[in-house]
């Protein structure tokens, strides 16, 4: 097989193009999971964890877009390979993207529903929110809930039951925790990562590492502004809060409340990270970057072959 035949094979062969839709995202998810295993248990960098969590979905997103772009230039043809490559795969790409968009709309609708069913903040919550300069809403339920949600304008939701259970100092500490999430646009990041998870395979280990890192940051910000006792008491008070959608950041989450309490109170046990942690993570990110560029390379090869054929015909 000469060089031109190899390029045409990589750029146009329907089995190669179809196989990339299956293999590349799965390979990216595997690499993300392996790299996430080396992250420090409680001190992972949230940027690294977010990149590892989002790369598999990003690879699938690029594959979907490139297949749609390729098909837009080849709308006619009747061979089996042509139908698979320029009709079947783009249809699959549209279906995957459509599913992700529908799930994203549902999350947005859930947030809007929270806004609609919540009530204006009461005196205690309003006073604490005014001091911090945050947007809050009260949920008229007796459950113990405190979380932040909202893509464009993050809002802290606190239930009536939580307000009645927490002292003023504990309520202020809980709001400081959630304000750290809102100020860091954590709901927006989680919204994007959730969309990427919906359209492709993902590494739950990397996503959990991201959530843990952000919870640790929010806890440390709350401790800096209040006291460790108030933050720990607020966390324990809402530890049995109602189940909320996964795209919200709750005061008491499923991301290991025990180690969070230990860190807040300065009793955290030191768990050494793997010595090869930087090398493994850097290698994983490099491989992920390479995988995400392969679909674009296929399109470039197809364009180069098409240009070469056009030049040959003109000659």
Question: How are the SSEs placed, and which strands pair?
Answer:
Elements: H1 3-12, H2 14-37, H3 46-72, H4 80-117, H5 123-132, E1 136-139, E2 146-149, E3 155-159, H6 160-165, H7 168-183, H8 186-199, H9 204-225, H10 228-237, E4 249-250, H11 257-264, H12 277-314
Parallel strand pairs: 1-3
Antiparallel strand pairs: 2-3, 2-4
Helix tally?
12
> Which range best describes the helical content: under 10%, 10-25%, 25-40%, 40-55%, 55-70% or over 70%?
over 70%
Domain count, please report it. 1
- The run of helices and strands is HHHHHEEEHHHHHEHH
What is the arithmetic mean of pLDDT? 77
- The overall strand count is 4
Query: Based on helices, strands and strand pairing, what is the structural class?
Result: mainly alpha
Q: What does the radius of gyration come to?
A: 24 Å
Distance between the termini: 25 Å
Widest sheet, order of strands? 1-3-2-4
Name the poorly predicted regions. Answer: 6-12, 75-81, 310-315
**Major beta sheet, specifics?**
4 strands, mixed
Which term fits the overall shape?
globular
Strand portion, in percent? under 5%
